[in-house]
Automatic annotation (TrEMBL):
Protein's organism: Promicromonospora iranensis
Gene3D superfamilies, per database record: HUPs (3.40.50.620)
One Pfam short name: Usp
UspA domain boundaries: 50-120
Protein name, entry field: Nucleotide-binding universal stress UspA family protein
Lineage start: Bacteria, Bacillati, Actinomycetota, Actinomycetes, Micrococcales
Family listed: Belongs to the universal stress protein A family.
Length: 121
């Protein structure tokens, strides 16, 4: 059992990571952080090293490098790790935007093999 979260350098990504750390600590289960695979590998590796050292005292953390399709990565990794929860971040939207959830978030909510916690900034 794990908690899976995507790591993005956005306010909603940081809020999702913070909530995922809290959930993992509270449930006493490992956290799997999925990095953005669209960046160069050396940047991803440096990001992973920084995340592991920053979070190591709080929770058992592992970093997985994504392929660039965050929704696909989160669903795949949640399935392969037997995740108990996926945590995603959402941003505020305009009144019209509220009618249409982002395609990635919608896909995660529909296809996830476990419950999804959506946090907003």
């Amino acid at each position: 059992m794990t908690i899976v979260v995507g790591h993005l350098a956005t306010p909603e990504g940081q809020e999702a990571l913070s909530s995922a750390v809290s959930e993992a600590r509270e449930r006493n289960i490992p956290l799997v952080v999925v990095t953005n695979g669209k960046r160069p590998e050396d940047e991803c590796r440096a990001e992973a090293d920084e995340l592991v050292s920053r979070l190591a005292g709080d929770v058992d953390v592992r970093v997985e490098h994504g392929t660039g399709d965050l929704a696909e990565d989160l669903i795949r990794i949640a399935t392969s790790t037997g995740a108990e929860l996926i945590v995603i971040g959402l941003r505020k939207r305009s009144p019209v935007g509220k009618l249409i959830l982002g395609a990635g978030a919608q896909r995660i909510l529909v296809e996830a093999p476990c419950p999804v916690l959506a946090v907003k900034v």
